[in-house]
TrEMBL record:
Residues 4-92 form the Pyrroline-5-carboxylate reductase catalytic N-terminal domain. PANTHER family: PYRROLINE-5-CARBOXYLATE REDUCTASE (PTHR11645), PYRROLINE-5-CARBOXYLATE REDUCTASE 3 (PTHR11645:SF0). The gene is proC. SUPFAM superfamilies: 6-phosphogluconate dehydrogenase C-terminal domain-like (SSF48179), NAD(P)-binding Rossmann-fold domains (SSF51735). GO terms for biological process: L-proline biosynthetic process. NADP(+) binds at residues 7-12. Residues 156-259 form the Pyrroline-5-carboxylate reductase dimerisation domain. This is Pyrroline-5-carboxylate reductase. It comes from the Bacteria. Pathway: Amino-acid biosynthesis; L-proline biosynthesis; L-proline from L-glutamate 5-semialdehyde: step 1/1.
Length: 264
């Protein structure tokens, strides 16, 4: 079995490692982890049985799991063989930027993984240089990507937008859920009951949107009788700048992704 090395083994790398092991794509001993924080390596070894590597060593696939602000450029300059494939999960940093720092011609695939890896839901975006497309179809690479959630192969020009909308996406839902639960508590439900009701409505409404073939406006109409409860509460939501606030929030995520890519 081939090896995979994670350089920068933080939250996102951990979520991918968990998916790789769960889906039997790699055995723990074939997963090498590198990080500047030693306690992080100890934790990952203890939790998943992966192999800590305090030095950067060769592996069939090297995942760049550091942040855009970290020294990714110094890291990739250390790669001296073209027998590896780089998969970068760094938000905002382009394939061209990484290739410009390389001293050897190595294929680079860029992905923006969704943290919903444990659930099988959530789209991760993947982009690759035209010249590297044959490499992207290699078995080990395909297996790596298939292990976490659903994939959307997109042009690299869309990847930053995808990051702010799709990959930051669970944030919007978590925050909406938290606010909704607080609303239930505000009007007098216990937090436990408010949570159960909110999660059920989130699941159910998502199902309706997927299966009913109806436009959300049609579904809203069914829920809003003339001068009734629903339309009164929606009226207040409209007054709160809810839709524009959410849209500004997504746009800020996209803008920040682009900014982060320009940090080095
Ligand atoms: N968390 C998320 O939802 C997502 C994160 N990403 C991307 O994944 C990358 C990592 O994000 P997180 O895991 O959330 O951050 P994190 O801060 O949890 O992990 C980064 C890790 O890199 C290590 N590190 C920093 N400099 C290093 C170096 N020179 N050599 C080795 N290790 C080094 C840090 O000690 C840390 O453990 C970022 O580029 C982010 O844009 C992409 C999609 C989603
Ligand atoms: O905030 C972050 O760094 C990550 C990258 C994309 C979504 N969340």
């Amino acid at each position: 079995m081939s090896n995979i090395l994670f350089i920068g083994s933080g939250h996102m790398s951990e979520a991918i490692i968990r998916a790789l092991i769960k889906n039997k794509v790699y055995k723990p001993q074939n997963i090498l982890v590198n990080d500047i924080v030693k306690s992080r390596l100890d934790y990952l070894q203890l939790t998943y049985g992966v192999t800590p590597s305090e030095k950067i060593v060769n592996a069939d696939i090297i995942v760049l799991g550091v942040r855009p602000q970290d020294a990714w450029s110094d890291i990739v300059q250390q790669f001296k063989t073209n027998k590896i494939i780089i998969i970068s999960i760094i938000a905002g940093v382009t394939i061209a930027q990484i290739k410009a720092s390389l001293t050897v011609d190595i294929p680079v695939i860029r992905t923006i993984p969704n943290t919903l890896t444990d659930t099988g839901f959530g789209y991760s975006g993947i982009a690759t240089d035209v010249n590297d497309q044959a490499v992207a179809r290699q078995r080990s690479v395909t297996q790596f990507f298939n292990s976490f959630g659903k994939l959307e192969y997109i042009d690299e020009s869309l990847l930053d937008i995808f990051t702010g909308y799709a990959v930051a996406g669970p944030n919007y839902i978590y925050y909406f859920y938290e606010s909704l639960v607080d609303a239930g508590v505000l009007v007098g439900l216990s937090r436990d009951m408010a949570k159960r009701i909110a999660i059920e409505n989130l699941h159910g409404a998502a199902c309706m949107l997927q299966t009913s073939q109806k436009h959300p406006r049609q579904l809203l109409d069914i829920n809003n009788s003339p001068a009734g409860v629903g339309i009164h509460s929606l009226y207040e939501l409209n007054n709160s700048d809810f839709a524009a606030g959410l849209q500004r929030s997504v746009r800020a995520g996209v803008i920040r992704t682009v900014e982060l890519g320009k940090k080095q």
